[in-house]
UniProtKB/TrEMBL annotation:
Residues 16-247 form the Tetrapyrrole biosynthesis uroporphyrinogen III synthase domain. SUPFAM superfamilies: HemD-like. It comes from Pneumocystis carinii (strain B80) (Rat pneumocystis pneumonia agent). GO terms for biological process: protoporphyrinogen IX biosynthetic process; uroporphyrinogen III biosynthetic process. This is Tetrapyrrole biosynthesis uroporphyrinogen III synthase domain-containing protein. GO terms for cellular component: cytosol. One of its GO terms (molecular function) is uroporphyrinogen-III synthase activity. It comes from the Eukaryota.
Amino acid sequence: MKTVLFLRKRASSEDNYEKLFKNKGFNTLFIPILTCSYINQKCLRNILEKSPYIMYSGLIFTSRNAIVSFKESLIGIDKQEYEKISNMRVYTVGSACYKELISLGFSNIYGKESGNAENLSKFIISYHKKEEPILFITGERRIGILEKKLPLSGINLKEIVVYKMEERIEFEKEFNKVIYDEELNLEWIVFFSPYGSDIVMKYVKNEDLLKFKIATIGSTTWRHLNDKWNIKTSVVSEYPEAGSLLEGILDYEKEKNEY
């Protein structure tokens, strides 16, 4: 049985990557590279207590961690205020973020088919016509596409950083144990972010990765691996979701007569 290594945390409940890949006969492993800590919670809470639906014409989320931070800051907010906040227009990428926002009560959600910040920026520029600023709730590390492109198109963008990612102490040991274990029949390694890729490359040589097939979630991580580390990628998932990645890997293996 072929093994796929996902360089991310396994979802605490049912993990869609695990479910879909196991249904197609793959063994799955999860090794998270990063650990998340939330910051500026008081500042975010202060924004939420001051009628953000009046101050801002919309919200932007591009990661689940940002949504979790937002959710924590909503605790204790007056019910009527909560309803007004959840009626705000929201822009996001991917089905995972979309589902998280739905669970918080948001319904006015746009951009879930965009798949990445580049496409989302194009959608917002073409769709958003209001003068009030949009609030971008984000993490400490991001590639800056929205921050560059939206203001150039006349959209007033404000941002608040609500979380940061740092390397897990256990990562090096766990990663090396897996990639050098021949009994696992490890065939695929899936990268999820440029920052995570940089950490991986501290502990492995390029030639050691040649025996594996590499997949990335999104073109940003693909470009980073290629341009900075000269790592060739076999599959680039069009959307940041399990189904898109699985489709790409199955198509690749069928083309190579490996599935």
